[in-house]
Amino acid sequence: MINKKIKIDSMKKQLLIFFLFSFFIQFIYAQDSTVVKSDSLTFESQRERVNQLLNERSRRFGEYDQSLQKKTGIFGLFKTKKDMQKSIDILRELVLNDNNIFIETRKLLDLKDAQSERYQRLANEYDAQISAYMKTITKLQNENDKLRDSLKSMESTDTGSGVLLYLAGIVIITLIILLILQYKRNKPKKLTE
Question: What are the alphabetically sorted keywords of the record (predicted)?
Fold first, then answer.
C-alpha cells in the first residue's frame, strides 16, 4: 500500500515537471518566434534596399554610358561643355549611390552578424537550461531510488519482525504447554477415594 502511494507520488512529480518543462519551452519558443519574425523582416527590408540601390546603380551607369556617347557639338562630332558636365554629374551620382550601397551593405552584414550572435547566445542558453533540467531529473530519479530502497528495507524489517513475532508466539505456547504438563505431573493425587 505504501509502495503504491510512493510510486504514484513520484510519478505525479515527474509528470508535473514534464508539463512545466514543456510549457516553459512553448512559452520561450512563442516569444522567440516573434523576435525572429521581426528580425527576418528587418533583414529582408534591408536586403530589398540594397537591391534597389544596385538596380539604381545599373540604371545610372547606363545613363553615364549614353552620356559618354552623346555628342551635341558641331555637326555631332564633338562633345560640348554641357555634355561633359552632364556626364560628370551622372558619375558623381554613381559615386554617391555606390557609397550608399556600401553603407546599406554594411548594415545588412551587421544585421546578419547580430542574428548569428543572437542564435548562438540562445543556443547556449537552451543548452544550459537543458543541462539544468537533466540535473534536476537525475536528482529526482536518485531521490526516487533512495525512497524505493528505504521502502524495501522497511518491508524486509516488517517481514523480519513478523517472523520474530511468530517465533515468540510459538515459544510462549510451548512454554504454556510445558507448564501445564509439569503441573499435571506434580499435581497431588487424591488418595481417599
Answer: Coiled coil, Membrane, Transmembrane, Transmembrane helix
